[in-house]
Amino acid sequence: MTDDIAKIVRTFIGEHVRDAELGDDHDIFATGSVSSLFAVQLVMWVERTFDIAVNPADLDIDNFRTVNHVVRFVESRRAAAPA
Q: Considering only CA atoms, which of 39, 77, 36, 35 is closest in space to residue 59?
């Protein structure tokens, strides 16, 4: 499941990153690879794509700064969701 999520996230971020190389630990915000508006777009995309709610407390840039961070965030929200 993690690999599937990573592939989906990597593809989406890769479509918006200005850097030629995107690794799963590449900090897209620290390197200026994307605009600040992309943060909002990324949050909305995560909600729609993975059918999870991003709560105000979740709006920490650390949850979204790399492919791996997004994957961990998605997995944690899914694990916390009621069955």
A: 39
